[in-house]
Amino acid sequence: MFADIATIYIRSGKGGDGHVSFIRELFVAAGGPNGGDGGKGGDLIFEVDEGLNTLNDYRFKRKFCAEDGEQGGKNNCTGRDGEDLVLKVPSGTIIREKKSGKIIADMSGENKRVTILKGGRGGKGNQHYATPTMQVPKFAQPGGKAMELDVTLELKVIADVGLVGFPNVGKSTFLSRVTNAKPKIANYHFTTLNPNLGVVNIAGDGFVIADIPGLIEGASEGIGLGHEFLKHIERTRVICHIVDGAGVEGRDPASDIKKINLELEKFNPELINKPQIIVANKMDVLTPEEQTIAIELLSEELKEEIDKGIEIVPISAVSGQNVEALLYKINDLLKTQPKGAIIYESEYDPSEYIDEDLPFTVEYSEELDAFVVEGPRIEKMLGYTNLDSEKGFEFFQKFLKSSGVLDELEALGIEDGDTVRMYGHAFDYYK
Q: What is the pLDDT of residue 374?
């Protein structure tokens, strides 16, 4: 089975926590803080690997995590940074946030390497929090949280020309004749499961052709593997409809063209506006006179398409009849179209999940006979809160609850009437 879509869980590395330690040397009664910083967490990176053409690597393994940063150590030792995790994907892979479906990155064109989730920053050791009024900081900054996402990987083939048509009309045979591609070819009445790519070199120019797996009626509603097939056509610059012009398989070529165009329009109305060429294949089984009559009849039935400037080109992929002329027509049509593959813009930025919480500590001081809460987060909160107003004090209480301060006080066994001290403020605790 061709794997062109996969859903996986990705996580960057958590930042290492800063360390709390103090200088302990002979003849140094009360050494200062020397806790080291934590290491940065590893990034989660996607990178294009030109040797890949499927997402098979993500069919069975669904969880990918970068390495966490190492905690800081004593003696100002900084923790080791976590290693980045690089996930290899084929060119043309679109990375979407699973829940919203929004595009995070399109691994196409110049987008060969993209950092999707950044690792958490390393926490600062307690040495950074020493001040003239707080020479013995007993807290350090925790490492930044890891970022995590469920993402969908979707491969959309990048090609200049997309070959479309119902099964067994000769698309694979045509591709194998005009390019270096070697698709499996047989007289089977079911569709190829994976797009085949080939490069055409003609008149000093080159372009890429993709044999899009055969379509069926109802493909735009997802019948069969409709959506998986149709999405590959969105990047192409020119569409080639290949039909059984001789009716060898008993199909009506005009009806096939109309059915395919209807499926394209239902899936994405913009597809019907792409330049098209109709290729009437298998004409070698007809006499020259019969070929002329068949093309005239097909032109009459497709008058609406012909009036739009769409040309019908008779060929035989087996014998090579008129194939070179067709390639020149395709090349000329491509010259009228903007160069470069369609690249989708990013719609979703995972960086909004970065967490930069400041540290705090909660402990009981026997010397003060009180619970002491301190740290940059507490100091910052008290700096912009007016505790003398009713609303300010209500905000202060909500902060203590939401930040986890109350939980830590209760874990230490605080009881009603006990004193809590915070930077010159003293409060009586009542539950």
A: 87
